[in-house]
Records
---
Amino acid sequence: MYAVEVHNLRKEFVRKKGRRRTRVAAIDGVSFTMERGECVAILGQNGSGKSTLVRLLSTLLLDDGGSAHVFGHDARRDTRAVRRLVNRVSVEASFFKKMSAAENLAYAARFYGMMPSQTRRSIPEILERVGFPAERRNDAMEHLSRGMQQKVALARALLTSPVLLLLDEPTTGLDPRSKLEVQEFVREIRALHDSTILLCTHDMNEAEALADRVGILDRGRLLFLEPVDDVKERYGVATLEAAFFTATGRTFEDEKSEEDEEREVYA
Amino acid sequence: MSAVQAPGVASQIRHELIGLSGVVERNVYLVKRYIWWDVAFMLWTIANTLTIVFIARGLDVSAAEQNELATKFLVGGVIWAFLGIIFEIVTETVAWERWEGTIEYTFMAPVSRPVHLFGMGLFAVLYGLVRAAILFVAVVAFIGIDVPNANYTAALATLALASISFIGIGMMTAVLPLISPEKGTQLGYIAQGLMLVVSGVYYEVTVLPEWMQWIAKISPATYALRAIRDQILNGAAISWDDIWPLLVIGAVSVPLGLFVFRTGERYAKQHGKLKRSG
């Protein structure tokens, strides 16, 4: 059984312009599989469909075609089983900002069936593991730096021992030191836990450093998903950036078309 | 493989109850963090209720009649405030979490939506009862209403029973911020206002046009107001005549509320409306 099995997955959003309604495909016939314990990175520009893919796998969106399975459970129909197995860290460290790190984690943990007697022990432990200072545990989230908030977001995801961890640009906006700390922690999770990791990012170095296989999602289409060396060999290039250029005819920094800008709003 | 094993029924129920306690616990944290704002809101509610109750004091009637009218106004004001809290908190199920950006984490958690909503409803009732009691005591102390026969136990029980229906209706309005992130919450307040207008909040239902009196029959607030006024003024016990409509409306409104919320959630997931910027 695959940890993740996505087949011909499609998600469209309706765009209104005056009286006209058009459908924009955020995910356009994506298929791939992930083995248990594997780390896969999906690269793509803003609006390429990375976050939509993560939302479809975490049951936050309903697909418009195809299928997505997590450990054999259909993400559309068997949402409860999927939710037990999945957790997510997104680019925005979303928390109740007046509540402390410990209170936010306790709230999240209850939804995963953890009693106060368990979280009294596990929350300080997990915060220590992500390098969060103990003396700031009871500070309101609004008083923490972006890097510290992201550490709490990682702690929230790990607290529930997810079998599938979805990382949606977890280091975007972090300073270089915080970025390295988060990446080191992702490595540690892989080494110590039985977690499968789907990392969506637009940081090519991060993808290369952390993932077993790398894919490029471009305008909703998955161009390939292979080990980094195979990608370089396939396109006869030295870097993932060059592979992106060869595969799409554009660079990562290229100006976006109007359609790309619109896709960015939804995907 | 442990990852694909389904938990047993007992384990699932335990899991749901822990989830429900988590919703209540989170709201307690938030009340603690916003306590001074809540105190200010409480003062505003007291002042607002006093403006209504003082109308009775200005009427050219006997002292006994003034006392009765002031009590009727006070009960109306307390129910209005209580209903306001229920609607506000249940509507915040979506609105507040959208504002904080936590909604996707909550909606992808393995807790059923009914339990999530009942958790919000349970906290709303507990918090609303405390506020209603403070409001009642403060206004009585301020204006000197004399209610020696009041049956407070029956009044609290009636309010708690009516809350089931209020939560069901609140669930229907809670979905509005999913459909319209900008204006959905305000529409919830409109529902609260409309319900109280037809329910005789500061007057008898009989003064309403006939068509409004028909609508009053399906409003739980009508029965709650009638019963609680009788219990506070005359010391009446809980009456079956008021209880059975509340039970029937509750039995209809809660499943209907869950259905409406589920439909709204499905719409939001189909159109990408859960996302904060959506």
---
Amino acid sequence: MTATTASRSTQRLNSPAEPSEQESTAATGCPAAPGAPQPSGRKRQLGHVINTRTARNWGIGAVCLVVPIALMWAFDKSQIGQLTLGLGSGALIAAIALGVVLTYKGSGVVNFSNGAVAIFSAYIFHGLRGSFDNGNGKLYMPPLPNPLALVEGTWNSFVTNKSDWVDLPNLPTKIDIDFGNGRMPMVTAFLVALVYAALLGLIFHFLIFRPLRHAPPLAKVVTSVGLFLLLINVITLRFTGTFKPVAEPDLGKKTLKPFGNDIVIQREQLIAAGLVVFVTAVLTVVFKRTRFGLATRAAAENEKGAVVLGFSPEFLAGANWVLSTVVAGTFGILVSAITGLDPITLPFLIIPALGAALLGSFNSFWITSFAGLGIGMIQALTKTFTAKSWFPREWIPQSGLERALPFFIIIIVLFVRGRSLPQRGAVSAGRLPFAPKPNKILWPTVLLSAGALVTVFAFGYDWRQASINTLVGAALALSLVVITGYVGQISLAQAALAGVAGFAMSKFFQSWLPFPLAPLAGALVAAGFGLLIALPALRVRGVNLAVVTLAAALAIEELVLKNAKLAGRSGVLAVDPPRINGLDFGPGNTNLRVFEIKAFKDPNVPPSAWFGVLCLVVVVLLAVMVANVRRSGTGRRFLAVRSNERAAAAAGVSVAGTKLLAFGLSAFIAGIGGAMSGYRFGSVAPSNFGALASITLLAFAYLGGISSVTGAVVAGMIGVNALAFTLLDKRTGIDLKYTVILGAVGLIFTAIQNPEGIAGALRLGTGQFRRKRHLELVEIGGPG
Amino acid sequence: MSLLNTFGMSVTFGGLRAVDEIDFEVPKGSLVGLIGPNGAGKTTLIDGLTGFVPTSGRMVFDGHEIGSLAAHKRAALGLGRTWQSLELFDELSVEENLQVAAERQSAKAFLLDLVHPQRSRDRSGVDFALDVLGIRDLATKMPNEISQGQRKLVSAARALAARPKLVCMDEPAAGLDTRESQELGARLGDIIDAGTSVLLVDHDMGLVLNVCDYIYVIEFGSKIAEGTPAEIKNNPKVIEAYLGQSAGATVGARP
């Protein structure tokens, strides 16, 4: 504790803490309203403000509830019944959101993985109840590292013939549970699943977020995003990757018609909502009336406050984490009969949950909970509207509107409120990854390009394919180097922006524009969308921006990429191969010879080697461009904004303009990457470019090294189906399906141990001796 | 001829008036001092002038009404500032810190940056700032590799690299010893000679009384006195409010 405060005061001198919202509003060029609340005045009037604000919130809540229901009562009573159909998923959203608020109060972490925790618990529960093994209950084990795999891998890498490989025992994936009738009793299974949830909470806090408590927001966001990826990939690996309806637990299925036949209400929906309201009440009482709650509230303001009350801040944080995961897990299990099991859509309920938590200012359990229920109900209502005959389903995807809704709620909340997440007492000024100035770019470029050419021409088709995937991944990662590495803005929408370019190129440009122009035009459209996403970035930063961009990624996926007018009816659109001088440079044209040269090995198996050359040229151009940005005045302004927005504004840098420029440039680069991806597959599909793809992209870009061009190249190499894992697959037999799991684990380790990423570790490894020596000299008062 | 004028400038935080109806003037080519006890509103006044807190009243800088301009636009007009907490860009070398302030952005510069970043740019501002503060040997260092005193100089150099018409310096002498403080006084003279006016906020009475042409004294956000150093030294209100009886004697005794 004392060390925290001490180091904070010394850090202040080196790297000033984030500017407060009020100061930065001025810095970004939006003059604050004259009547805006100011920090010093706020203290004085705190009690008064809280009372009026609470009353106002309850008032607004009541109006929001009563007016629509009254209107429905007057015009179309059946809609009231429809409204209640959203209570079940609303209860899950509310529970996930309550968990988010709890961890934020307890440790200042916004946990993007809480939805995944809820669903993971539900899967464990249903595993024990035998839903996946024909009624035979199994305890599913998490994929733990097996020390024997090292022996096996090392041995097998010396054996050329795959059939001679040894196969040592693997860790069990599931353990039989037999309580007589083949499965665990309901209550026991429920409790065991909650033990899993509680263990997750403990692990998350003590092994992951506690070491990160002084890290910058970026590291915490990517870590919780990494946990999200890890959990959903574990679910997909251990259980199933597709939707599965389940019949239990039964909350009391019954159809109620309390007001005549017009209003049909499902009783289990009401019960789910009632349970979440009960939990909210309990949490409120605990936080208002017990010393534990008081100490947590005190710690959120100032960690010393908790110590004075006799609580260790660590205990408080850990306890809140466990509460959070258990609340989320409980409702994940309880409403699973209503929502079904799905490893993708349900974890993404974190987006509406974050919207609900934002509405509650990450503080009020009541507002958060009712907002969650409300979002669930509005989504259910949207569903009935989109089914109506007048709904323009040509223009707006039916299911998309429902899923994109939270984005609009989040945008409205952030714009109306301006400031959303309260600042915590223990603000730390952790450093972002270092963005080195590339001095020599010629030789690394030549060597890496030569390596790529050798792999593309001289190795087999699978290596060729892996190289091309590497190049596409590197292009996408470069877009994150610009926006997150250089300017420090967390964007979880980069893959969605890439998708916009791919779809725009396919739908609108490729028919009448020749090769380099069609992808460029698509990338410009993506840049336009990037500027749109940047608008909230002018108001919010850090974690808030991550929330906005993630919601935007989902909205783009649902409303643009799956839009019948803007994309294909089924979502997928064909992409014509690029033609230069009438020659087909597409991956499918293996007959292409330039200078009479074709691939030396597997020349007739796609992808064509010359498509690889084309990708290489594009990536080299992009990489040199991004390196040039860092070496120029533009890059200096980018880093100045990342480092200190106030000081940048005082130095004459337009912070707003710089952020817009960076978002535009980054989206443009992502767009080129999207077009490359389209050429590579011959088509663009929403699933390759959605919110999940955006999250995965950030994870690998951070793991590779978010702040340098080298890092982007490394990110490309370790990406899905790219060089690194192809090598692993071929040498050790580690299946490619583990890529994302290993990537997510690597990401979490990177965030804790080595925020500079793999590229940074390589750079530091070579430069360490020199640097160390220099630091010693500085310490003894040598140079300087 | 005056470079900066304020008319009834106020800064309000909730119910608190941190700066209350202050009128002051900085003539071109002059070094104006601003002193006051802790919490008098000195830094808030600079924040208001340079666009980091909202103000009421009028502010005219070099013929422009600047009250409604964003901070970076005021900087572009030639109103620079330094920070008490320095606020250097830690990820950039000393020279790059200065270049950020010296270079102007434009669409053409951005496009050129993408293809030809190493082209020669106008370095006059950076060279001027490095030379006038005598820190050319620090140019390639990173901010975490130099001493606190050197960081202070870099912070001032960054403000000067934009060749501002007026630079507001927030406590540049805090933490310096007497010799370093005198050295700073001499540098301030060089800066004035090079055509930049200075608004100096500091606690070091010796420095302020020695180098300033004109001094304003504020307390609780209000101006309580103004005048030449000699007038301020003998102003009974100032002695009572800020310097205190004994402090007044000490200051008087100092060269």
